[in-house]
Amino acid sequence: MRRGPLQAGEKVQFTDRRNKKITDQLVPGGSTQTEHGLILHDDVIGSTEGVVVTTVTAKCEAQINQLHPERDASKPWKAARAIGGWQYAVMRPRLADYVLSMPRGAQIMYPKDIAQVIQLGDIRTGHRVLESGAGSGAMSLNLLDAVGEGGRLTTIEMRPDFARVAEANATVYYGRRPEWWDLRTGDFDSVAAELPEHHYDRIMLDMLDPWNRLEQAYRVIAPGGVLVAYITTTTQMSRMVEALRESGVWTEPAVQETLERSWKAQGLAVRPDHQMIGHTGFLVVSRAMAEGFTALKKRERATKDTVTDVDELTAEEREAQLEDLELRDISDRKLRKVLRDLDRMVDALES
User: Fold this and answer.
1) What are the b/e assignments for 224-256, b being 16+ CB within 10 Å?
2) Are 54 and 45 contacting, i.e. CB atoms less than 8 angstroms apart?
3) Among 93, 125, 155, residue at a domain's last position
4) Which residues form the tRNA (adenine(58)-N(1))-methyltransferase catalytic subunit TRM61 C-terminal domain (predicted)?
5) Do 257 and 268 belong to one domain?
6) Nearest residue to 88 (alpha-carbon basis) of 163, 12, 166, 153
7) How far apart are CA 293 and CA 241, in angstroms?
8) What gap in Å lies between CA 91 and CA 273, rounded to an integer?
């Protein structure tokens, strides 16, 4: 964690009175373009967090198309961007702010999902964590923070270019490459085969087919270790859950999603915002059994038959199918009561 005066090379966040945020890296002699002029970095370097800086007037020519100025003749906002005198508060970005603003190659996980991974995965200081799928480094950064320098994060990324993006984002965030991060490239099974058995306390999988990686995941995780898989679609989630159950070495999986809604609170106008972050993905959480022990299971299980047309079944087969699906048919007694209530309502209308 950085403290003290803001230094060149650091990322800072500029926030105006309308709560519009701009994140940029401080460079000696550099500037940040805003809608209301330029923020000069030399005015920020050496100051503390919480100061307010004022934009200066930019050259209008910088806003106008040099080759075809006529194209911008009817765009007064072009010149308006050059006007200074707008104030911005200066802060170091939170990790969530940094993740949302950092350069990315692959789609990142939202902070709401990352927070649940850390909490439900019980990822704490000193843990040894295995991660598959670095992407742009959003999850990796949070895992690095969670385990701390006393822990160890091993990340397996299939694509070398994505690994470079994640590594660069982590380096800029920490000001150096984290020494407690082992970033490897290759497919999960091949790289995991080289890792020691039962070495990792936690495993985080963010990939298209995590159900195909459970064998190696079980080999390298310690008994009682927590496995968390981030999956975006219902079909993927279903396959992952069934694969965990069929393996017999993982506890009954828990599945959840998180929805995020912000609120407006201004005077008497206290209401939820019109927009919210809805479904982004599912988290599937399970724990590893000790070798030689089988996971305990519920007796009732949903049917696996997803193709048979219920209309083609006999009455007995249909009843059994409904029971497997845990659907309750209405009883004759209940149906008679419903009809009596409806008859009474119809009679009331006629009278």
Assistant:
1) ebbbbbbbeeeebbbbbbebbbebebbbebebe
2) no
3) 93
4) 97-266
5) yes
6) 12
7) 19
8) 25
Q: Residues 6 or more apart from 32 whose CB is under 8 A from it?
A: 14, 22, 24, 38, 39, 41
DSSP string, 301-332: ------SS-GGGS-HHHHHHHHHHTTPPPPPH
For 266-314, the pLDDT digits (tens) are 898 999 998 888 899 999 999 999 999 999 987 765 555 555 666 777 8
**Structure tokens given for 256:** 């959840």
pLDDT digits (tens, 9 = 90+) for 200-235: 999 999 999 999 999 999 999 999 999 999 999 999
pLDDT reported for residue 59:
63
**Cα–chain center distance at 239:** 21
Q: For residues 260 and 130, state if they share a domain.
A: yes
d(CA 96, CA 116): 13
Cβ contact 99:107 at 8 Å:
no
Cα separation, 182 vs 191, whole angstroms: 12
Whole-number Å distance between alpha carbons of 286 and 228: 7
Asked if the structure places residue 299 within a domain, the reply is no
Average pLDDT score, the chain: 87
Q: How many residues does the chain have?
A: 351
> How many Cα atoms within 13 Å fall on the side-chain side of residue 93?
23
Q: Tell me, what's the pLDDT at 341?
A: 85
State the Cα–Cα distance between residues 197 and 184, nearest whole angstrom.
18
> How does pLDDT run across 33-50, given as a tens digit for each residue?
998 899 999 999 999 999
End residue of a domain, out of 41, 76, 93: 93
The rounded distance, in Å, linking the Cα atoms of 195 and 218 is 12
Whether 241 and 206 share a structural domain: yes
